[in-house]
Amino acid sequence: MQAPTSLEDLQQAISKEYESLSKRLQQVARFLLEHPNTVALETVASLAEQCDVPPSTLVRFAAAFNYNGFTEMQNLFRQSLVEQTSSYSERVQLSQSTTSSSTVNPSIILSEFSSSNAFSMKHMSHHFSENMLNDAISLLESANNIYLIGLRRSFPISTYFAYSLRHLNKPTHLIDGTGGMLMEQASNIRKGDVIIATTFSPYAKETVNVTDFAYKTGAKVIALTDSKLSPLSAISDLCFDIKEGEVMGFRSLTSSMTLAQTLLVGLAYRLNSDGMLSDTNTTPWNK
After folding, report:
1. How do residues 114-131 score in pLDDT, each as one tens digit?
2. How confident is the model over 249-265, as pLDDT tens digits?
3. pLDDT score recorded for residue 164
4. What is the C-alpha separation between 61 and 39, in angstroms, rounded?
5. What domains lie within the chain, and their CATH numbers?
6. CA 116, CA 247: separation in Å to the nearest integer?
7. Exposed (0-12), middle (13-18) or buried (19+): which is 59, by Cβ within 10 Å?
8. For the chain, is the Cβ count within 10 Å smaller at the N or the C terminus?
């Protein structure tokens, strides 16, 4: 097997091989997937300490993916970071909390969320390729039915998808588990359908179970989640791992909603150009 030549390919390879790695190599895998900028900037000694493994384990990890040393693999992370626009000082500023519980007030919270969300949004265009976005839109365009599931804090994303897709005249089904009938609502998912599943750590088991059912029926799965190690990653055709802004342990939904809007507006333009929208006033941004 040839060593991956891009960070995206490497991340996909790590996700695919994760279960077959030893416990220590899994520790490295989690850190590399969750902290790509840190990997690009830190020394081997520092990274080993943060992963809680000996430096030799990083070398073994790189060898497991056919690199001639850890530095060769690390260069993929550095190249990706160079393509981003913000400076290291900005990242440090966003990652450090300068407030204590006794000084927090609404204006500080607003400032922290605004900065954190701006940072996350700034990097979305680097994180998801044009092909990936187009592939997702193509799946939605050709779907016989579109199912949505996102529970608890993911629920606003799914309801927005449902609201907008209905304005685009797409057969849409929101799976919300009303009356405890979660699997009953999912029971009609078939090959030719698409399900958009959204869940973030600690990952709703109900969402994972419904998604697994849909995947096994032959339906296409578009996942919105927060890590390539998410349980949705292995049972999806397209997996968008979204790096949201986070302040004081509270995770934003700004980037997730922006991705949803991107897919929906892209779909609306696609349908309109194909003559499949009878009334342009039905587009979701006009409602």
Report:
1. 888 888 887 777 778 899
2. 678 899 999 999 999 99
3. 94
4. 13
5. 7-82 (1.10.10.10), 127-286 (3.40.50.10490)
6. 7
7. middle
8. N
Query: Contact at 8 Å (CB) between 165 and 172?
Result: yes
In eight-state DSSP terms, residue 54 is: -
d(CA 205, CA 212): 10
**3-class secondary structure, 101:** coil
The mean pLDDT value for 12-18 works out to: 90
Element (H, E) at 184: helix 182-186
The per-residue DSSP string of 224-274 comes to: EES-TTSTTGGG-SEEEE----EETTEEP-HHHHHHHHHHHHHHHHHHHHT
CB 39 within 8 A of CB 49: no
Q: C-alpha distances in angstroms, 142 versus 5, 136, 138, 246?
A: 32, 10, 6, 35
Q: Which residue has the tokens 């799976």?
A: 175
Closest CA to 244 of 230, 255, 228, 232: 255
> What CA–CA distance (Å, rounded) separates 118 from 122?
6
pLDDT (0 to 100) of residue 167: 92
* Confidence class for position 279, pLDDT limits 50, 70, 90: low
Average pLDDT over residues 211-228: 93
Averaged pLDDT, 11-31: 91
pTM: 0.67
